[in-house]
């Protein structure tokens, strides 16, 4: 009975929530802890442009220094969303993935793909939650599945701050930054 009462009380809040924008730019700080190994940090830049109501193109860039190795990770691709309730979307993405590493003049790079599926929700006009399962494959046995969760607080329709946490078998990554939606 208490759960039903809470859901009924939250219904008007959800009804007031704003539509989620799939056109945005994120800039932030990232920290990665390799399981049983070193920790690194750096910055990330991500963007997305929504089109045709339910689709978007995305590009992500992450640069980190982990134990003296400069790592750049790029991804580009397409995604789609399906509204399953007011202010709640199922979200899927697929794209090209490239990772480059450089240390002491030696370089290495691999490319592959990523796919992800998740839920994005805006339970209140200033608050957004997101959860995803992400699979990345760089070939040669270099694949990984991660679970990511995030939250954002919107000061205006266009400006938000947020934090995300991604956990996999090989690493844990924190990302904190700002989002400009358009």
Structural features, described:
The protein has 182 residues and is mainly beta. The protein is built from one helix and ten strands, in the order αββββββββββ. The chain has one helix spanning 2-16, and strands at 24-34, 39-51, 55-66, 69-85, 88-103, 106-124, 127-137, 143-154, 159-168, 171-181. The protein has a ten-stranded antiparallel β-barrel. A hairpin with a 5-residue loop joins strand 7 (127-137) and strand 8. The protein is globular.
Q: Could you say which overall geometry the principal axes of the C-alpha atoms support? A: globular
Strand content: over 45%
Number of helices: 1
Main sheet specs: 10 strands, antiparallel, barrel
H/E topology pattern: HEEEEEEEEEE
Low-confidence stretches: 2-17
Layout of SSEs?
Elements: H1 2-16, E1 24-34, E2 39-51, E3 55-66, E4 69-85, E5 88-103, E6 106-124, E7 127-137, E8 143-154, E9 159-168, E10 171-181
Antiparallel strand pairs: 1-2, 1-10, 2-3, 3-4, 4-5, 5-6, 6-7, 7-8, 8-9, 9-10
Summarize, please.
The chain has 182 residues and is mainly β. It has one helix at 2-16; strands spanning 24-34, 39-51, 55-66, 69-85, 88-103, 106-124, 127-137, 143-154, 159-168, 171-181.
Descriptive labels:
single chain, 182 residues, mainly beta, 10-stranded antiparallel beta barrel, globular, disordered N terminus
């Amino acid at each position: 009975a208490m759960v039903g009462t809470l859901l009924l009380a939250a219904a008007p809040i959800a009804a007031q929530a704003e539509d989620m924008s799939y056109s945005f730019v994120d800039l932030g700080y990232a920290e990665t802890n390799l399981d049983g190994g070193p920790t690194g940090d750096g910055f990330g830049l991500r963007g997305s442009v929504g089109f045709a109501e339910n689709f978007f193109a995305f590009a992500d860039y992450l640069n980190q220094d982990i134990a003296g190795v400069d790592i750049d990770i790029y991804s580009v691709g397409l995604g789609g969303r399906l509204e399953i309730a007011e202010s709640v979307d199922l979200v899927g993405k697929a794209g090209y993935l490239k990772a480059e590493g450089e240390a002491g003049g030696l370089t290495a790079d691999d490319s592959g793909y990523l796919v992800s599926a998740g839920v994005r929700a805006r339970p209140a006009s200033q608050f957004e939650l997101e959860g995803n399962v992400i699979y990345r494959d760089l070939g040669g046995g270099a694949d990984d599945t991660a679970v990511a969760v995030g939250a954002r607080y919107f000061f205006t329709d266009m400006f938000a701050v947020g934090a995300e946490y991604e956990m996999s078998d090989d690493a844990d990554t924190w990302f904190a930054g700002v989002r400009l939606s358009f």
